[in-house]
Amino acid sequence: MTTEKTTIYFNPKCSKCNISLELLKENGKDPEIVKYLETVPSKDELKNILSLLGLSADQLLRKRENAYTEAGLSEDSSEEEVLNAMINYPILIERPIVVHNGKAVIGRPPENILEIL
Known about the structure:
Layout: E1 6-10, H1 15-26, E2 32-35, H2 43-53, H3 66-70, H4 79-88, E3 97-100, E4 103-106
Parallel strand pairs: 1-2
Antiparallel strand pairs: 1-3, 3-4
């Protein structure tokens, strides 16, 4: 018997996060909820999530947030600079991210998460 683990990187003020969490529960999942604004993922965790998503750090960035400018980021920022900014300004991390059985997806739209369940 294998144990399924589901994690959602979650912001309670985000409607897409809340819809995604409900969708997980409707599909019989009781995910670990990581409120990433309070419990910021480490650089290694972020790198692992990016690897599972198949994205670069830049592709997981919320560029319309004020923190993007505050962090001094631009289109020319390196992967390392973006990762450091995400740690210092976690609001920059796109959400929600659901990780399930070694796969990950961004819940925008929330129905995306059904692909990995």
